Amino acid sequence: MSDMVKVALDAMGGDNAPKEIVKGAVEAIQTEKKIKVYLVGKEDAIRRELSAYQYPEDQVEIVHASEVIETAEPPVNAIRNKKDSSIVKGLNLVKAGECDAFVSAGSSGAVLVGGQVIVGRSKGVERPPLAPLIPTEKGASLLIDCGANVDARPSHLLQFAKMGSIYMENIMGVKNPRVAIVNIGAEEEKGNALVKETFPLLKECKDINFIGSIEARDIPAGQADVIVCEAFVGNVILKLYEGVGATLIKKVKAGMMTSLRSKIGALLVKPALKQTLKAFDLEEYGGAPLLGLRGLVVKTHGSSKAVEVKNTILQCMTFKEQDIIGKIRTSMAAAKDGE
Amino acid sequence: MSDMVKVALDAMGGDNAPKEIVKGAVEAIQTEKKIKVYLVGKEDAIRRELSAYQYPEDQVEIVHASEVIETAEPPVNAIRNKKDSSIVKGLNLVKAGECDAFVSAGSSGAVLVGGQVIVGRSKGVERPPLAPLIPTEKGASLLIDCGANVDARPSHLLQFAKMGSIYMENIMGVKNPRVAIVNIGAEEEKGNALVKETFPLLKECKDINFIGSIEARDIPAGQADVIVCEAFVGNVILKLYEGVGATLIKKVKAGMMTSLRSKIGALLVKPALKQTLKAFDLEEYGGAPLLGLRGLVVKTHGSSKAVEVKNTILQCMTFKEQDIIGKIRTSMAAAKDGE
Question: Which ipTM score applies to this complex?
Answer without folding.
Answer: 0.90
